[in-house]
Amino acid sequence: MKNRLLVCLGLVGLLVMGSSCSPKSTTEPIYLDENAPIEERVEDALSRLTLEEKVALCHAQSKFSIKGVPRLGIPEVWMSDGPHGVRAEIEWDSWSYAGWGNDSCTAFPALTCLAATWNPEMSALFGKAIGEEARFRKKDVLLGPGVNIYRTPLNGRNFEYMGEDPKLASAMVAPYIEAAQQSGIATCVKHYALNNQETRRMRVNVHLSERALREIYLPAFKAAVDAGAWSFMGSYNRYNGQHGCHNEVLINQILKGEWGFDGVFISDWGGAHDTYEAAEYGLDIEMGTGSDGLTYSTKNHYDNYHLALPYLDALKRGEVKMENLDDKARRVLRLIFRTLMSKDRPWGSFATEEHAAVAREVAREGIVLLKNDGILPLKASEVKRIAVIGENATRSMCKAGGSSELKPWREVSPLEAVVEAYGAEQVSYAMGYGSGPSSYGRVNPSPYDAEELKREALQVAGGADVVLFVGGLNKSHQQDCEDGDRKTYALPFGQEELIRELAAVNPNLVVVLISGNAVETQWSHLPRAIVQGWYGGSEAGHALVDVLSGAVNPSGKLPFSFYARLEDCGAHAFDVSCYPGVDDECYYKEDILVGYRWLQAKGIAPAYPFGYGLSYTTFALGEPTVKRTRYATDDKVVVAVEVTNTGEVDGKEVVQLYASKPESCVERAPRELKAFQKVKVKAGETARVELAFDVQELAYWDETSDTWQIESGEYDLYVGNSSEAASKLTITVR
Ligand code: BGC
Fold first, then answer.
1. Is the residue at 644 inside a domain?
2. CATH number for 149
3. Ligand 1: which of 477, 482, 483 to mutate, judged by most atoms within 8 Å of the beta carbon?
4. Distances (CA, A) of 386 to 380, 565, 723
5. Is residue 576 included in any domain, yes or no?
6. Are residues 387 and 308 in the same domain?
7. I need a labelling partner for 501 at 20 to 30 A (CA). Which of 65, 140, 544, 598 fits?
8. Do residues 229 and 187 make contact, with C-beta atoms less than 8 angstroms apart?
């Protein structure tokens, strides 16, 4: 350690001697002392920077890096997508892949799947593994996780987020961040804020009540700050007329002001639009901005960025505040000392069997059993001929979807895993439908004859004991993909008709939905079982077959509502000004009633409710009891309940606690998730679960005082295993 420090000091000494523009170079270089407190290192380094060097910290030097300060030995900062794995290397100055041979990563499941585990321990495992991969690949900032709230099932990026409920998303995002940053890399929480649709994402201006903002759309971001996230990414959309990447209210007032975020605020790629706004309204690093046609010239077009030469000029002319530049540089240096120049930074590891095991564990724990009349599990000893039908049984789901696409070192498809588990002689396959090849921003027609594909599938299905239909969405444009929303809620590519015809030729039909979004399921009475399989990453097929075969008892729960019809969703219950907006103005008229809150307030039955998921065993919940524990500043509601596994196999159940205020001075959702716990219970055994939440979480955002207020009086508490939880308790808060 000492030797390394001496070498560094020597190097810097030389560099400093050779420089004539350093404003201060005589004091001890504290910034190089890895044992010194970070804030001292930051201030010391900051005091040595020239104006130009500070500005250089505020914008890209390539597609995914910023320059650092070479003169002082402060290294470049490298970023990578995120959030499901470390993306393949991209060229210095174009979106083309660099063609490296050593960048095939472990693909972890999509974040909706992680959220569906309802198990923060899975988030920690995921975060640790992806942090190690990022570190090994010499990335300093991992662009993820994302926590935009699921407002409509049409949003093309829902698969990258953690569902419709702020409490669930908050509980799941925190361990990911804490564990990933242990590897000495910064997570970058995105897309702050209100990036709830991809349609017109660069322009749409979101209008919503302050209450909906505070109670629904911001809590998971706040949880990320509390978990210690070292960076945030701005959103493309506008709020209050200003873009998310330089927004006075969202960034300066709330994130950096109220919440005390001391990390770096990075623009989404191409999300910065104006030098003055970027300088004054909270943006620290500008990435991905278009380059005024200079991309292919010899001139360095990164100099044209809003926070590059135009910023330098504005600073020199006194048009923008110097103290804001110092604040930006300070934050970037802090990030560098927290990551790149931190003490004992581990080396990380990449594409290992351990990481594949994590991917498999998360994927199978997130899988949700939506329906089962007993056909599942499919025991290998009992099943002879399995017909696997559907394009998603073989299609790679890692290689598309936009910026979260991955080049995995392994991606086990459902078909491969079925063959592995049940034997090649037992399995036959037909594609059944074709979606067409994927291409960025385009919908390509399928090159196949749909009738021919269906005919073949019906023939294969007719001769089997069990039909496994693997369909759903995919990662093509206007499916689950960045930069476009879905066009329909129904299953695409003729799948619904195919399901109907498959059920007619073979009633032993199991439907597996691969998607990051809910789909219309008006056909749900036809199959004997329905499984929500998500995008499972490298081990997708294995995880699915673990559940289908009964090797693993399913325990995932929906992180969002499955609406029976699209118009049952609050965002679609009004006119188009509510979604996708008119003239780029979008009004969130459903207000705080997002997801199950809307369904319950309006008495609409979902196809499958938020928090729902079956198991191969059954659970019975005992009578819950409630108490309030108050010690000094710690004021909690604690509900205890016994969970008995009344079936024949071991399993895990998620006990959920919802609260409501029946008589309130403001509109309240009939139920809001306040606590949950996943518990493993052996067949025939009973476990005791305690669900606790802070009384503060009963507060509503009061728009007249701009503060959180707790109303006194009676609150109803509901305990159960979905948002339709049955047991009711009452607690009085004074
Ligand atoms: C996406 C971000 C991503 C960035 C860099 C943007 O298009 O919105 O989520 O991190 O590209 O690839």
1. yes
2. 3.20.20.300
3. 482
4. 10, 32, 35
5. no
6. no
7. 544
8. yes
Distance 105 CA to ligand 1 centre (A): 18
In angstroms, the CA 596 to CA 614 distance is: 18
Residue identifier of the C-alpha nearest atom 9 of ligand 1: 403
The alpha carbon of 269 and the centre of ligand 1 are apart by a number of angstroms equal to: 6
User: Is residue 382 domain-shared with residue 332, that is, in the same domain?
Assistant: no
CA atoms of 333 and 342, how far apart (whole Å): 11
Residue in this structure with the two tokens 């991905």, named with its chain if needed? 288
| pLDDT tens-digit readout, 530-559 | 999 999 999 999 999 999 999 999 999 999
**Total structural domains in the chain?**
3
Is the CB of residue 237 below 6 angstroms from any atom belonging to ligand 1? no
Active site residue 465: no
Residue 374 CA to residue 649 CA, distance in Å, equals: 14
The Cα 723–Cα 714 span in angstroms is 20
Residues 524 and 664 in one domain: no
Specify the pairing of strand 466-472 against strand 509-514: parallel
- Full residue range of the structural domain in which residue 213 is found: 2-338
What are 94-105's pLDDT values in tens digits?
A: 889 999 999 999
Same domain, 312 and 436: no
| Dihedral in degrees, nearest 10, Cα atoms 180, 182, 186, 192 | 50
Amino acid at 530: I
CA atoms of 161 and 253, how far apart (whole Å):
24
Domain annotation covers residue 555: yes
Regarding whether 465 and 404 lie in a shared domain, the answer is yes
Q: Looking at the structure, do residues 556 and 635 belong to the same domain, yes or no?
A: no
Question: Is residue 268 a contact partner of residue 288, using CB atoms and an 8 Å limit?
Answer: yes
Q: Is 269 in the pocket of ligand 1 (CB under 6 A)?
A: yes
Q: Please pick, among 268, 480, 485, 568, the residue that the annotation labels catalytic.
A: 268
Instruction: Please report whether residue 197 resides in a domain.
Output: yes
Verify that 552 and 653 share a domain, yes or no. Answer: no
The helices-and-strands tally (H runs, E runs) of the chain is 17, 26
What residue owns the CA closest to ligand 1's atom 3? 403
Q: What's the CATH number where 702 sits?
A: 2.60.40.10
Ligand 1 pocket check for 722: Cβ under 6 Å: no
pLDDT tens-digit readout, 402-441: 999 999 999 999 999 999 999 999 999 999 999 987 676 7
